[in-house]
TrEMBL record:
Keywords: Membrane, Transmembrane, Transmembrane helix. Coiled coil: none annotated. Residues 102-246 form the Oxidoreductase molybdopterin-binding domain. The chain crosses the membrane at residues 21-42. InterPro entries: OxRdtase_Mopterin-bd_dom, OxRdtase_Mopterin-bd_sf. It comes from the Bacteria. This is Molybdopterin-dependent oxidoreductase.
Length: 257
């Protein structure tokens, strides 16, 4: 009698396992089909033609994230800094877009567009006369790597004071473009005026290497490296979002940390 009972129990157990396997397989197929349907639906949504770089539903999510980051942003929120000994000697290069090989450093001057028809040409020597600030922080790339790096230059907020840009700093954004026009970013004004944002001309205590944006680049620790434009050619102010290289390719405009 016991043997019969055991065999019956085994049959029931086998049936349960079979039923669970079939159920799990059906659920997997439904979820897989749902994922494909969602992907195709989103892919066929508008977006690319509007120069957002990504379909509208995904862009709305990124814009929602930006609204949250903007509300919690504070000038008192500082990126962690490190001693000079922690900085790497060989700094990784994060991209070369905008680093045209025909660039002649002797002819470089920063084009500061105060308003339409009002542009100042500022030399590196002029910028170096302003109060110098050094920051050693963990530079984060959107590709997933980071390095503790040593940068020096003038705070953007000090630059604004020195060139009497109080009216311009009331705008919502600054726009930065490389001399060859190949790379461009838009930065919200609160992030630009953050006390750790630098117009940077030195790395590890020496002039910037060419591949790191000589003679002048942006360093902005509150954002991913895609916003730290190398080799600034033109700096302008706007209440409208300036064009942004990676935004047009589907990335987050704000790119905050």
């Amino acid at each position: 009698m016991e043997k019969k009972k055991t065999k019956q129990e085994q049959n029931i157990s086998s049936a349960k396992i079979r039923n669970r396997t079939i159920t799990a397989f059906v659920i997997f197929i439904l979820l897989f089909a749902g994922a494909i349907f969602t992907f195709v639906t989103i892919k066929n949504q508008p977006g690319e033609t509007q120069k957002t770089g990504v379909q509208d539903p995904l862009r709305k999510v990124l814009n929602g994230n930006e609204r949250v980051f903007t509300k919690i942003f504070s000038a008192n929120h500082l990126a962690k800094t490190y001693p000079k000994s922690a900085a790497v000697k060989k700094v990784r290069v994060n991209g070369d877009v905008g680093m045209g090989k025909d660039f002649d450093a002797k002819d470089w001057k920063l084009k500061l567009v105060k308003a339409a028809g009002d542009t100042l040409l500022i030399s590196l020597e002029d910028i170096r006369k302003l109060p110098k600030t050094e920051i050693i922080f963990d530079f984060k790339c959107i590709e997933g790597w980071s390095q503790i790096t040593d940068w020096s230059g003038v705070k953007f907020s000090d630059f604004v004071k020195a060139y009497h840009l109080d009216q311009q700093s009331q705008k919502k954004y600054i726009g930065l473009v490389t001399p060859d026009g190949g790379y461009y970013v838009g930065i919200d004004m609160p992030s630009a005026m953050h006390p750790q944002t630098l117009l940077c001309y030195e790395m590890n205590g020496k002039p910037l290497p060419m591949d790191q944006g000589y003679p002048l680049r942006l360093i902005i620790p509150t954002k991913y490296g895609i916003k730290s434009l190398k080799r600034i050619g033109t700096l302008s102010f706007s209440d409208e979002r300036p064009k942004d290289y990676w935004f047009e390719r589907g990335y987050d405009y704000y790119s905050g940390l």
